Give the backbone structure.
Amino acid sequence: MKIRAGFVSNSSSSSFVCDICGREEGGWDITLEEAVMASCENNHIFCQDHILNTQDEIDLVLEAIYSNADRAEEFRDYLKCNDYTPEDIKGSKGKYIIFKYTEEFCWDLPFSICPLCNLKGISRHDVLMLLRKLTGLHTDEDVLKKLEELGINSYKDFREWLKA
Ligand SMILES: [Zn+2]
Ligand SMILES: [Zn+2]
């Protein structure tokens, strides 16, 4: 968490929750970078730990970066500013370089990097959407009616029903 000297009147509390593992990081004016998280172009949010763990993933990231003209230019600038040569991004040093790049530019990563966009993980929200569709229980009213049908009349009943 960021430590601030003095009182900053326009700061506000915010937090980020990983759509994959549920890790939550909060604080005053915390940024995605400080939370060690990243987001994709479809607004998924996830820990940086969940990405770039295999050479295939690294290659996908490079492909995605170079297939977008703006991003490719941004990436080339980043390499230049840090004195990296194109050869450096191959091999084991590549992961480190790309990781530093995503740490600095961790918003709106291409969907090819995102585990959720590639169905290697699923968010609680999407699990709920799936179950609503499969069960036909689209609204809270539908769910409450279903509980009644099942003879569940209290929260205690509900907890016991879940465990049975
Ligand atoms: Zn996570
Ligand atoms: Zn995504």
Summary: Residues 70 and 76 are 10 Å apart (CA to CA). The chain has two domains: 13-113, 124-163.
